Amino acid sequence: MNANIQKFKEMVSQSDNIVFFGGAGVSTESGIPDFRSVDGLYSQKYKYPPEQILSHSFFEAKPEEFFEFYRDKLVLGDVEPNTAHYRLAELENQGKLRAVVTQNIDGLHQLAGSKNVLELHGSIHRCYCAACGEVRPASLMNEGTGVPRCSCGGILRPDVVLYEEGLANSVISGAVHFIRQADMLIVGGTSLVVYPAAGLINYYNGDKLVLINRDATSYDNMASLIIREKIGEVFAQV
Hints:
- The structure is a single chain.
- By secondary structure, this protein is α/β, with parallel strands linked by helices.
- It is 34% helix and 17% strand.
- The protein has two domains: 3-32 and 81-121 and 166-235, Rossmann fold, CATH 3.40.50; 33-75 and 127-160, SIR2/SIRT2 'Small Domain' (2-Layer Sandwich).
- It starts with a helix and ends with a helix.
């Protein structure tokens, strides 16, 4: 165990009001790619960049192409939580971790056993009608082909925050509450470039800010500890 991970382990053992703030890097070790990246596959198969396809205006204008991309890239197959997900759930069960604030929409934290999960960008496991607002089973949207429709005739849509849409005030206020109260804030698997989510870190008042990310972030100068390793491998040692 290297010195940084040993220090991280000691900080966790000395804390009992931990909040974890995570991004796409938490789930990549479960085999889920960072869908925001424009790679060769996207450019070969799709006429538009992911950020455009996953926008509110694109959903309304081209629902067929939206759902083709959505089912192909965002609906998960047999994906399981990884070590980081499970260890965070254990820390919550031990009464040390108070909340998980996630930018991910995959539901893997809940699948691993976490109870208090604040999903900033929603979840692919919920859907509702864009016309009447009725909540419907996600399977109606995630399975099959074509544009899924409600019994009222409206288009079903995933309960996720698309580009051009704002985050839910209730989720934001909950995240701010837990981060303000935390004695330790662990930030993992996120480059901290997506706002307003990344700005939530500014509400932390403590002196134990840990950043676990393979690349540098604009918040590195604020961190008490920086670990440049895979998040699952780090949590396997804590």
